[in-house]
Design a protein that fits this description.
Blueprint lengths: L2 H66 L5 H4 L10
Length: 87
Amino acid sequence: MSRASKMTLLGTSLFALSTVVFVHFQQKAEQQAMHQGVIRDMEQQRLKRERQADFDMQRELEAEYKREQTVRDSTAEGAGTGTGPGR
């Protein structure tokens, strides 16, 4: 083989090898990014479940307090009577 053909073969081989290595690392990076997305989604779902459980607990407590106590709307009682503080 001539020197030019050897250099061409070497150049194309290096280019092909570097392309394969680049694609391999690119795929690994994309796979890690996708996995981070799954982890982030799982964390968001966990937080949503926690918030929903807290909301349900607060709603149950409110219902329990309303059963135990007499709740009056103080804003509606003094609203047009003129008997509020300072009058």
